């Protein structure tokens, strides 16, 4: 067996409530899944779901700090329900989709909004706006066997204690089951994948020194500080 050229990178993992770790394979994100946010971004809320990705090592856990990323003057927050996939599947039906879910967490899809705007204008990919280092803080995963599959519940986000985003999971245009089914028509989902399911309205810029705190009723919290 050949030796590695260099030591392989440590696996990325998210803590599970009551013990254990969830090893992350891929990070998928649903774009524009709350009507109010779609309207604030100037887009058509009737569009079908679409997806973009972040690297697994963009995940930040345990309340660790988030370094302000380079090449942006407009770093914005997006609080989201995170779905942790625990069972492989392709072309999954909506009816079977929730059987593939291990659990849920609160997470942040951090976005370099100015880079995203420039990419949109030029018709270019979003990767450098979404898939940068430390761009996905995620809280503890709660198993679905304990909390069930939330379809409603308050989702909120604050900066330095001041509320910036509020909404309800019931306002999602595409449900968790529908998003899983649709995505699995494009790629095979595997245990270890996570899906970030979109954000409600109220996104805005954050700066160094800001403390970011998100909460989803019945699911959990996420917290980080911009350094």
TrEMBL record:
Keyword Metal-binding: yes
Residue ranges annotated for the Fumarylacetoacetase-like C-terminal domain, each copy included: 27-226
GO MF: acetylpyruvate hydrolase activity; metal ion binding
Transmembrane segments: none
Signal peptide (from-to): none
Keywords: Hydrolase, Metal-binding
UniProt-recorded name of the protein: Fumarylacetoacetate hydrolase
Species this chain originates from: Devosia epidermidihirudinis
